[in-house]
Specification:
three-stranded antiparallel beta sheet, Molybdenum Cofactor Biosythetic Enzyme, Chain A, alpha/beta, Rossmann fold, single chain, 435 residues
């Protein structure tokens, strides 16, 4: 079988956002937790799009290359025409962690097209790119838009702080040379003139072309470029879920396909277990706003499998009693020593939270789960005996509820919410219960 579109999510929360956009555009899509075998693909039937959820955002370059080589080979073998490296909408990355240049260098070996578009914004998430500069809202405040290097959270990200707003310079520091750009004024040109502009930049040997995005209408124009050029030869595209939005807008417009919206998510039929490993201020506010959960605080500076194991038993007991439970890591006090300690323990914390989730789910078998935090989501889902995800329903902008696919009947069909640290309204955890 073949699929027209293949995407790799650099973390699980972002991957599910792309899954949602494709599914809502009427594209039959499955998100796999590892490159799927041919037997697995045969078992699920024809797909319009194939997704692979990964954790490249938290990997050093060598590990990224190894993982993405397997992904690129899988997509190439399935005849994918658009190979999408789904990066975070804030493009937070660094030379030594989540290096986007490494992703491009690895994946472009599996496509023939010299055109590598980078889609620089996602208006639906209040991410905008103008003259190559990235801007974003902070949390639920839609009024204040910050240049990304002055963003109250992303400029201080504990692993990949954004100190440069010009995405061309940001990527150059990671190893991408001669990134060209097309600014928003070009979208008013006749389409053939825009194509000629792109051809000229490709002929000059640019490693990629960054496209401004200010409005949803810009995505249709970019989708036409991506769709038309992918018909000539398979291509690599980089960016947030706006790449999928762009492609779907163009393909659906040409095929007169309508937007597809599944039934809304109803109230949870049973207790909900939520696990928040994110230390972001947005997630902290969402935890503070909850009123329907028993809360259990986890110390991120003392997290390991043995330390958290004793936490699983009371959580299981409460869930079996029909109570909703929220386990969350508290934010350490900000001091130089603590910051270094927090950074050193980040991977251990994510793994410990994953082990906790696995133990709780196996014992209590809740049918709806919420996971907050990109690293936490990646590790947590890998700890479960599942192989894939499909789109279930939206919860808030950028927050999706998925259906878990697993060979074990008691796990298959479980609702799972994935939420990045910067995503969701303040009541998102309450909505997970209420629908």
């Amino acid at each position: 079988m073949s699929a027209s579109y293949g995407f790799y999510g650099d973390d699980f929360t972002g991957a599910t956002d792309t899954l949602a956009h494709l599914a809502r555009a009427g594209r039959k899509t499955l998100l796999f937790l590892a490159p799927p075998s041919q037997a697995r693909l045969d078992s699920v039937g024809p797909l319009d799009a194939i997704g692979i959820a990964g954790a490249a955002r938290a990997m050093p370059p060598a590990a990224m290359s190894d993982e993405l080589a397997r992904v690129g080979a899988c997509f190439a073998a399935r005849g994918v025409r658009v190979m999408h490296y789904k990066a975070c909408s804030t493009f937070d990355s660094a030379p030594d962690i989540g290096n986007i240049a490494t992703a491009v260098a690895t994946l472009r070996r599996y496509v023939d097209n010299p055109f590598v578009p980078i889609v620089g914004g996602q208006p639906g998430l209040l991410r905008y790119c103008a003259f190559g500069q990235l801007f974003a809202a902070s949390g639920g405040d839609t009024r204040a838009i910050h240049r990304i290097d002055r963003h109250p959270t992303m400029s201080r990200h504990p692993v990949t702080p954004m100190h440069e707003a010009d995405l061309r310079l940001h990527l150059e520091r990671q190893g991408m040379r001669d990134v060209a750009s097309v600014d928003w004024r070009a979208y008013a040109l006749p389409f053939d003139e825009l194509e000629a502009m792109v051809d000229a930049k490709v002929a000059l040997g640019s490693s990629a072309i960054l496209f401004d995005v200010l409005r949803d209408d810009d995505l249709l124009t970019l989708g036409r470029l991506i769709s038309a050029r992918s018909r000539r030869a398979p291509l690599l595209a980089v960016g947030a879920s706006s790449v999928a939005q762009a492609w779907c807008a163009a393909v659906n417009a040409s095929a007169s396909r309508e937007h597809h919206e599944p039934p809304p998510l109803g109230r949870a039929q049973g207790p909900v277990f939520a696990l928040a490993g994110s230390l972001s201020p947005v997630t902290a506010a969402q935890i503070e706003a909850t009123r329907s959960y028993w809360k259990i605080e986890l110390d991120p500076l003392a997290c390991d499998g043995d330390t958290l194991r004793f936490k699983a038993a009371p959580i299981v007991d409460m869930l079996r009693d029909g109570r909703n439970v929220l386990a969350f890591t508290r934010r350490p006090h900000a001091s130089a020593g603590d910051a270094q300690q927090e950074d050193a323990s980040r991977e251990r914390t994510a793994q410990a939270c994953a082990a906790l989730l696995r133990d709780v789910v196996r014992a209590a078998r809740p049918r709806r789960i919420g996971i907050a935090g990109g690293d936490t989501s990646s590790h947590a889902v890998q700890a479960l005996d599942a192989w894939g995800l499909s789109y279930r329903a939206p919860l808030t902008a950028g927050v999706t509820v998925c259906r878990l696919h697993a060979d074990e009947p008691w796990l298959d069909g479980t609702d799972v919410m994935f939420k990045g640290g910067q995503m969701g309204d303040v009541d998102v955890l309450e909505r997970l219960i209420e629908g």
